[in-house]
Write a structure and sequence with these properties.
Helices cover 43% and strands 14% of the residues. Strand 2 (120-126), helix 9 (144-147) and strand 3 (152-158) form a beta-alpha-beta unit. The chain has eleven helices and six strands. The protein is globular. A six-stranded parallel sheet has the order 3-2-4-1-5-6, sandwiched between helices. It has helices spanning 3-10, 12-20, 27-36, 38-46, 50-61, 65-77, 79-85, 102-115, 144-147, 170-179, 217-221, and strands spanning 90-95, 120-126, 152-158, 184-188, 205-209, 231-233. The chain folds into two domains: 3-81, Single alpha-helices involved in coiled-coils or other helix-helix interfaces (Up-down Bundle); 84-233, Rossmann fold (3-Layer(aba) Sandwich). It is an alpha/beta fold.
């Protein structure tokens, strides 16, 4: 089966996109041409165009060698904006075990930031299946108000086997959101255990969400993720 045939067979959404926009030929080649124009992509990110930001994040997440080179060029082009906006940007890492309420808390926190005039980006990391490699990427459905706000950008991302609760390109994705003018970047990890603390190195503040009745006194004083948290929400 050719690359084009496989692409069309496995991606109905992309097939509709190419059909709607009258794009013919090999869709993979078309996407390569889009990503190759990093100057145009950088201008789109700097103008806060959500479509450009989404494509830029897809580019930095790609594992193809040629895409990684283009991603590096894109980030270099955005350096002036990144240097000037660092002091205004707050990155908050949110972590905790599965089902603790991370997405629900992010919805409330993000909406509160928006009500105060901030622009909010959420990078929600979703676990990838060890069997199929796929991911549901459904955290956006838990943030119905925030995801519909024109001042917010919610991006689910698969972990793709990366340990620590985040994805390989989470830091680069956070930089892209900063360059696009989002001054509050919220990073939600996959459901984690006691030792997955990678998000603390990516964030200015680390919020740990825990369900009640999580163990006895000994469990509460064990070293690990709790000792690096700035805030613990129960």
């Amino acid at each position: 089966m050719s690359t084009t045939a496989a692409f069309r067979r496995t991606s109905g959404a992309w097939r509709r996109f190419f059909s709607t926009n009258n794009i013919s030929g090999n869709p993979i080649a078309y996407l390569d041409r889009v990503y190759a124009d990093t100057d145009s992509l950088a201008r789109g990110v700097l103008s806060s165009d959500r479509g450009s930001l989404a494509r830029a994040i897809t580019l930095v997440e790609s594992t193809r060698v040629e895409h990684q080179k283009l991603a590096a060029a894109l980030l270099r082009a955005l350096q002036p904006r990144l240097r000037s906006s660092t002091a205004r940007t707050l990155r908050v890492g949110v972590s905790g075990p599965p089902g603790a309420g991370k997405s629900t808390l992010l919805e409330a926190l993000g909406c509160e930031y928006v009500s105060r005039g901030h622009r909010v980006a959420v990078l929600a990391i979703d676990p990838s299946s060890a069997s199929t490699g796929g991911a549901i990427l459904g955290d956006k459905t838990r943030m119905p108000r925030l995801s519909c706000s024109p001042a917010a950008f919610v991006r689910p991302t698969p972990s793709r086997g990366t340990l620590g609760g985040v994805a390989r390109a989470t830091w680069d994705a956070a930089l892209l959101c900063q360059a696009a003018g989002y001054d509050r970047v919220l990073i939600e990890t996959v459901g984690v255990g006691q030792s997955e603390t990678a998000v603390a190195d990516l964030a200015d503040a680390f919020l740990l969400v825990l369900p009640p009745a999580g163990g006895d006194e000994l469990q509460g004083i064990k070293r690990g993720i709790t000792e690096v948290a700035d805030i613990v929400a129960v």
